[in-house]
């Protein structure tokens, strides 16, 4: 019987070659499935690593395995595999994507991280504002609420600054052909209302469905854009996606000092969300 926070046999069979490759030499290692279940437990419960129940093995093993999978791209490979499955099963909308952001409150323990790794930002994606330390998650999802890609930034930065980089991070491979990196429509709120972003969409053949701010501006040259009100109503998919992800406490609050560690935890949250496509997974 599969316990709470644990991955089902069917889902494990899909990712076992990524998480647990065949061991040829060396001392037998702790069961990867057991460790992965422990990481899911930490993600969902929000508890400290040292509070990991004994049934998942030593907490230090789970934490070291989390760091290893964070650094070698295992979590990204798992998410890509699950996205491929959603795409092949016809559960993913490749026509209309939504983009938005949410601010995540960081605890005081998240501050003070040293510079580690060439790709680690100096500010560790932490921003100081009136509400304290925050990190902003910029997310792209489809109209069904499946997460496609995300980026991190300090909490005080504007959403529009990370529109292009977040869309450029989408990479959906298929069994044949080139990976999918563009959609036909992109839906966003008025926080992304910018001539620069609209020109970017035009260059790449994307039709922007972005609400306009109420402000005085010069009339744009050419024919006026028709605002697709019906498609814009679908934007609540990204809001619902954030709502589902924030039920996971390690997503809703940042405890990690390093941006790479928090990014890995967000990636695990997206994996957990994609696993819900299989009803045998018990959340």
UniProtKB/TrEMBL annotation:
Domain named Transposase IS4-like: residues: 99-270
Matching Pfam families: DDE_Tnp_1, DUF4096
Domain of life from the UniProt record: Bacteria
Protein name: IS5 family transposase
Annotated PANTHER family: BLR1914 PROTEIN, PHP DOMAIN PROTEIN
Domain (Insertion element IS402-like): residue spans on this chain: 7-78
Organism: Halomonas citrativorans
């Amino acid at each position: 019987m599969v316990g709470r926070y644990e991955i089902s046999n069917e889902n494990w069979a899909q990712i076992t070659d990524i998480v647990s490759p065949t061991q040829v030499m060396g001392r037998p290692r702790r069961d990867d499935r057991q460790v992965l279940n422990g990481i899911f437990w930490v993600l969902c419960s929000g508890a400290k690593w040292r509070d990991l129940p004994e049934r998942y093995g030593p907490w230090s093993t789970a934490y070291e395995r989390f760091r290893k999978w964070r650094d070698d791209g295992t979590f990204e490979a798992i998410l890509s595999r699950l996205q491929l499955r959603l795409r092949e099963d016809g559960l993913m909308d490749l026509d209309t994507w939504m983009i938005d952001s949410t601010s995540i409150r960081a605890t005081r323990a998240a501050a003070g991280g040293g510079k580690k790794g060439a790709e680690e930002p100096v500010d560790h994606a932490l921003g100081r504002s009136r509400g304290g330390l925050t990190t902003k998650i910029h997310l792209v999802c489809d109209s069904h609420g499946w997460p496609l890609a995300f980026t991190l930034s300090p909490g005080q930065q504007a959403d529009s600054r990370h529109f292009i980089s977040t869309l450029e991070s989408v990479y959906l491979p298929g069994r044949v052909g080139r990976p999918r990196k563009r959609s036909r429509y992109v839906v966003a709120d008025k926080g992304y209302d910018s001539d620069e972003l609209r020109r970017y969409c035009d260059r790449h053949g994307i039709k922007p469905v972005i609400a306009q701010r109420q402000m005085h501006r010069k009339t744009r040259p050419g024919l006026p854009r028709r605002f697709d009100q019906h498609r814009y109503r679908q934007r609540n998919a990204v809001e619902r996606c954030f709502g589902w992800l924030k039920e996971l406490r390690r997503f809703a609050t940042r405890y990690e000092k390093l941006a790479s560690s928090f990014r890995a935890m967000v990636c695990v949250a997206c994996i957990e969300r994609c696993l819900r496509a299989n009803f045998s997974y018990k959340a």
